[in-house]
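Lab notebook page, bench 4
Experiment: in silico fold of construct C2
Operator: M.H.
Input chain length: 243 residues
Purpose: comparison with the prior construct
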Amino acid sequence: MTPRDAVILAAGLGTRLRAVVDDRPKGLIEIDGQSLIGRSVAQLRTAGVTQITIVTGYGAAAYSAFAAGADNIRLVHNAWFADTGSMASLATALEATPGVDLLVLESDIVYESRALAALSACDGNATLISGPTDAGDEVWVSSPGGRLQSMSKRRTALASVEGEFVGISRLSAAAATAMLHIFHQFVSVHGHGRMDYETGGLVALSASHPVSTLLLADLLCWGEIDDERQYERVVERVWRLVK
């Protein structure tokens, strides 16, 4: 069953895309007149999600304009977005949405709707992985037996590689609470919040709360937009197929 809540992480600076787009945040990049985050919101609604929390940082005013007049879209702001990692943004959302199962998505991804349907059919905590995309800047996932063990941007750092991290995960209420506790412990030990939610938070969570990795039988068509090469790949190849 699809969680009724979703969090979209949209606080990033997007500095590697300044040569491609204007100063708008990554999630509001438009292709054929539709923004990345606008497409995600529509897909989430279709999947049965009723409450969407968007974590803002850079370009927060643009997201305020995007959400103006929309039903059941809540904005929460990571005021320290420039000096923290994505886990700090997720923690901001988790503090605002306690005690619920939820989906967690990145704002700069384009994906087939069946990605959400596949996660909805899972029990417990799960994260979506894909086959090779050759998109560059991949996050590789090691999950022997279908259970998350580790992630890295260095493939050689992993004992095995079962797929690429897509950026869509499902968390139970208990797992979300545990991730928040993991982040607070990290800040207490290190004195800063520069923790990534995937390679840091999800991997740490998997030690106490099993996280399944879901690899679809047919290659999932999806793309992330972090730099110029990825932008061109999404525009020229991915967008046409997911539409």
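Observations: The chain has a mean pLDDT of 94. Helices lie at 36-47, 60-67, 86-96, 114-120, 173-190, 197-206, 228-242.
Next step: discuss at group meeting.
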